[in-house]
Amino acid sequence: MTASRLDMSLRERLIVALDVPNVIQARNIVAALGDTVSFYKLGLQQVFGGGLGLADELFRLGKKVFLDAKLTDIAATVGNATTNIARTGTEFLTVTGDAPIVRAAVEARAKAGARKPLILAVTVLTSLDQKDLEDMGYTMPLDELVVHRALKAKEAGADGVIASGFEAAKLRALLGPEMRIVTPGIRSADSPKDDQKRVMTAGEAIAAGADHVVVGRDILRASDPAAKARAILDDIAAAL
User: Hey, what's the signal peptide range on this chain (predicted)?
Assistant: First the structure.
């Protein structure tokens, strides 16, 4: 375990995905979790449902925000969007893992004179498996494609990658200790996979090399969300 990974706050390793239908439900989840959780992900569902205003509320509560926008467009448009996002205080921003898009986001942040958001490149969605990739025309094995896209993203200046826990160990060895690895598709051992195909527990992903895990349904569906979040944090702590 590298020093940089050990130095990170335990609570910051857990990112709760506010994948609920509206801002009111998201506020209720945040209130129920209280001080247990310090980091939240806002995806497209929230962004197009008033979530940018919710981000401001989270900032006022002292929370960190991960904007999972998966930006993809011509370089100028991605750059302009990143410039605006850099003004908000967002901690993490996702872009698709294509080198020109990563480079545009990184350069725009630099021109804005900002340190954040950290630019995270999406490698291969955890909802996809090898057959899905073949249907899309990819012939490269899934794990090799993830590595290929991660290395290209690093060359383009990305601060980290989004990747399954199944690729985390290999990516950690290749990317070094400073690149962030953020792993979605996290499920407790007794939870259904739903629409995810490459899933792990939080502890397994952290032990494999991930810095952060993104958890949605396991916490959102729990009768006691705070207790569930604490159990996940205990799992992460044991892995560390």
Answer: none
